[in-house]
Amino acid sequence: MKHKPPHWQHDPPWKRDWKEGPPRQSWRLFAFFSLIFGVIVLLILGGFAALLLFFSRAVAGGDTAAIVWLGACGLTIFLPMLAFFIAGRAFRGIATPLAEVMSAADAVAAGDLTVRVPVYGRRSRFSQLSHSFNRMIEELQRADQQRRNLTADVAHELRTPLHIIQGNLEGVLDGVYEPTPAHIEATLEETRTLARLVDDLHTLSQAEAGQLSLHLEKVSVPDLLADVQVSFSGQAEAKGVALAVDLMGTPDDLVLVGDAGRLDQVLSNLVANALRHTGENGRITLSAARQANNIHITVADTGEGIPAEALPYVFNRFWRGDAARSHTAGAGAGLGLAIAKQLVEAHQGTIAVASTPGEGTQFRISLPIDLSETDHEIAAT
Predict the structure, then answer these.
(1) Distance CA 283, CA 243 (A)
(2) What are the pLDDT digits (tens) for 51-66?
(3) Distance between CA atoms of residues 167 and 173, nearest Å
């Protein structure tokens, strides 16, 4: 009994078809082009033969007319054969690439995203078509993998608080735990964790889909930074971390159009992340400066820093610098930086990160002072 190879070693359908010859679409295209080309040639040559016969009868005798007529008939037979030969030569250059794209499209429709189309030539239209098709499949494959990763990440994040809630409630029902305020509060805290996770996912999905509504108004960046400083002053003091604001420029220069609530959410996520990774006697600085028509906001800390190999992934969903961290250890769900990036981009801005392990991390936000009013309505001030 022969051993069958694993399923991932099987050729996809579009490749298996070529083992027994070109796919059916190739022959259909070949027949179609040959028929059209042949009919056109026959019509042209038939008219040409009739014209020659009429002309020969008008200027020559019967023998000459017969010779011309036979020659024209010979051409009407030979030239269609030549046309079919030329069509066969052009088969590989026209029908074959189109047939392969059609076969690959059928494979993609059946769910096979590993299919790729061979590229013929370098500058031909068919090579451009093949490149575009392959890029499209690569994007589909990447999006499908992201969807799978997101589903797994969400399931993982939901599992921990749900297990805690279930364990606490079952313990109370079985008499293992007393329904004391402490146990009830612990269970309630896990429900808050679930609620925050659901809210974060909703915000993130809206932002990524471009459906996040912004309430635009004039925002004073100094006031925004001062509010964030006040909100986190208690946590910073409890950890022994200095939280400072550094403004470069007059308050009148540091004004932009944006959604104050969303921008506060961005800075809150960054400061909360900085507090988690900055130890005692550390420092977190919120600074702002204007450059031309942009305002740059920086959140810098003197914490543990981020390894260089991890920097490209800090804005990914559910990314954590330390995979071993848990909610109980003070780490979030790993959505804060992803949400911050999406909210900044919703304001037509950019966010970047620079870090040195052991010295600290710096997040820099660049926001335009005025947004386009085509998609958003600026609130009256």
Answers:
(1) 6
(2) 566 655 555 555 555 6
(3) 10
- Bridging pattern class, strands 217-220 and 294-301: unpaired
Cβ neighbours of 13 (radius 10 Å) = 15
Q: In degrees rounded to 5, what are phi and psi of residue 231?
A: -60, -35
Whole-angstrom Cα distance, residue 14 to residue 32? 22
Query: Which tokens belong to 380?
Result: 């009256």
Phi/psi of residue 220, each to 5°?
-85, 115
Whether 242 and 236 have beta carbons less than 8 Å apart is answered as yes
HSE-CB at 4 with a 13 A cutoff on CA atoms is: 5
3-class DSSP state of 364:
strand
- Cβ-based neighbours of 13, under 8 Å, separated by 6 or more: 103, 106, 107, 110, 112
The pLDDT tens digits for 113-135 are 888 888 776 666 777 888 888 88
Bigger pLDDT: 211 vs 104: 104
SS3 content of the chain, % helix, strand, coil (to 5): 60, 15, 30
Task: Report the candidate in 220, 368, 243 with the shortest Cα–Cα distance to residue 299.
Answer: 243
Would you tell me the crossing angle of helices 336-346 and 181-208 to the nearest 10 degrees?
Answer: 40
Other Cβ atoms less than 10 A from the Cβ of 299: the count is 25
Count of all residues that appear for the chain in the document: 381
Written as six digits, the tokens of 369 are 């002072």
For the packed helices 62-89 and 24-59, what is the interaxial angle rounded to 10 degrees?
160
Kindly tell me if the per-residue pLDDT of 260 is higher than 60.
yes
Q: Which of 367, 363, 362, 338 is nearest to 350 (CA)?
A: 367
pLDDT of res. 190: 84
As a whole number of angstroms, the distance between CA 298 and CA 353 comes to 10
- Rounding to the nearest 10 degrees, give the CA dihedral for residues 164, 168, 171, 177: 130
| Cα 105–Cα 108–Cα 113 angle in degrees, nearest 5 | 130
Strands annotated E in the chain: 217-220, 242-248, 255-258, 283-291, 294-301, 350-356, 360-368
CA separation (Å) from 145 to 80, 141, 152, 249, 323? Answer: 52, 6, 11, 46, 20
Three-state SS at 324: coil
> To which residue do tokens 């040959």 refer?
34
